[in-house]
Design a protein that fits this description.
Rossmann fold, 6-stranded parallel beta sheet, 11 helices, 456 residues, single chain
Length: 456
């Protein structure tokens, strides 16, 4: 068994990610599993905070997650904060030595800073069992991802590297696997013989929300498609596995991503990009993206991206997988939509539109819906469209709580393996190159609309 984690070192502790998501999720995890409360939380950042400021930061973050007073008091009794240069070997060494081994170092940092912090760690002798957890994006292209993986491999074994994708929170993953592999009805249909197309959609009503510093240099394709949506694609398209464990699951995902490429090998024709202009979302006025605070007008940053890919193997050849993600859209839509092939024949005497069956796997909150044709309520020869729906188990923890639990347990099941991080960049890099050369036009859509009017 792996050595129990004694210290949680949160690098970038004063940032938005730490305060809004990570610390509330950590508190909720400690609430659900009180035996973990003995872990020591150490915050590190560039701000010169005193002990009282840090204590209030932790308390506020935990209270926002509705964490119990018992957990808050337990953490506050031992937590402390250090002003630190995370790219300094001396400062990193002091942070690691500030608590009992084995430490988990969580890099809630921009990618470049995280890479430089890892370089500083090369000058240290890390305690046995040290965990390194990094937020996406993992690099900025395939070459930089490979370089980062080489750097991490010189620090700790791959099983102790957790490339965090909160999209893969345990409940969502297991719900996808359960729908597929625990139902004899569906798995025999799960191929190009019966499936027409797959759409993986993550549409948001949210706008920039004060994230220009990161988002304006990334855009929708890098922020969502390159990481989250390709990981979901791998779960949808992978072959059946023998066991739900890190090795089998991650091997199956890697096999899918190695077979994945832009539709017909044409990254320009297979992709679309657009940016929102002024509009209104549920009564809230939204400015042009280029007028948002912190946005660089000279950048061609998209806020809506579509990429159609193919999985070039026996099971999926010829089936388009459309990946779409955008901001400031009319509806919040997070789902995997499986569209089955049309009927080969509708018996004479049945009337109506026999639309193809569709299976929707909706995320956050998770539920499943099977839309199919049935006899109508009046004339039994008239077809009617019905949906069979069921809510899926949401789990006891939010997505970040689930991935933190896996990290602290030393279980990489929900972490992105190094080779698959590189494969995701391999798929997307040609698209980014086509966009930089202006081979794909930058369309526009009004905030609060469903997207550009010329998009299907």
């Amino acid at each position: 068994m792996s050595q129990p984690i004694g210290t949680f070192v949160l690098l970038g502790a004063s940032g938005d990610l730490a305060g809004r998501l990570l610390m509330p999720a950590l508190g909720q995890l400690l609430d659900a599993e009180p035996e973990r409360r003995k872990i020591i939380l150490i915050g590190a950042g560039s701000e010169d905070w005193d002990h009282a400021t840090w204590q209030q930061r932790v308390r506020s973050a935990f209270e926002s997650g509705k964490v119990s007073s018992e957990t808050i008091d337990a953490v506050l009794s031992s937590t402390h904060y250090s002003k630190a240069d995370v790219t300094s070997a001396d400062d990193m060494g002091s942070l690691i030595e500030a608590g009992p081994p084995a430490p988990a170092l969580y890099f809630a940092l921009p990618p470049t800073v995280a890479a430089n912090a890892c370089k500083a760690l090369q000058q240290l002798s890390l305690p046995a069992g040290t965990i390194l957890a990094l937020e996406k994006p993992f690099g900025t292209d395939e070459a930089s991802a490979a370089n980062l993986n080489d750097l991490l491999a010189n620090l700790v074994p791959e099983t102790q590297v957790h490339r965090i994708d909160h999209f893969l929170g345990r409940s969502t993953v297991l719900n996808l696997l359960g729908v597929r592999f625990a139902n004899r009805l569906l798995e025999p249909l799960w191929s190009n013989e019966h499936i027409e197309r797959v759409d993986i959609i993550f549409d948001e009503q949210l706008t920039l929300e004060n994230r220009a510093r990161y988002y304006d240099s990334a855009g929708a394709l890098m922020d969502m498609v390159q990481s989250h949506l390709l990981q979901i694609l791998a779960l949808v398209a992978m072959d059946p596995i023998a066991a739900v464990n890190a090795r089998d699951l991650r091997d199956a995902k890697a096999q899918v991503l190695r077979a994945c490429r832009a539709w017909h090998g044409d990254p320009a024709a297979a992709s679309k990009r657009a940016r929102y202009t002024a509009g209104s979302i549920e009564g809230r006025d939204v400015p042009n993206y280029t007028d948002e605070p912190g946005v660089d007008r000279t950048r061609s940053t998209e806020t809506l991206a579509e990429l159609t890919v193919e999985v070039d193997n026996w099971r999926w050849a010829g089936v388009p997988f459309r990946l779409r993600s955008g901001k400031a859209l009319a509806e919040r839509r997070k789902e995997v939509l499986i569209t089955f092939k049309p009927l080969p024949h509708l018996p004479t005497g049945l009337h109506g539109d026999a639309s193809p069956d569709q299976l929707r796997l909706v995320m956050q909150p998770d539920h499943v819906s099977l839309e199919m044709n049935m006899n109508g309520p009046d004339d039994p020869f008239d077809l009617d469209r019905v949906a069979l729906t069921a809510d899926l188990n949401p789990g006891r923890l939010p997505a970040y709580g689930e991935v933190l639990a896996g990290m602290l347990d030393g279980d990489p099941l929900l972490s992105v393996r190094g080779d698959t991080a590189e494969e995701c960049w391999r798929i997307v890099d040609p698209v980014l190159a086509a966009w930089r050369s202006d081979s794909v036009p930058m369309d526009e859509y009004a905030a609060g609309s469903s997207g550009p009017s010329n998009w299907s």
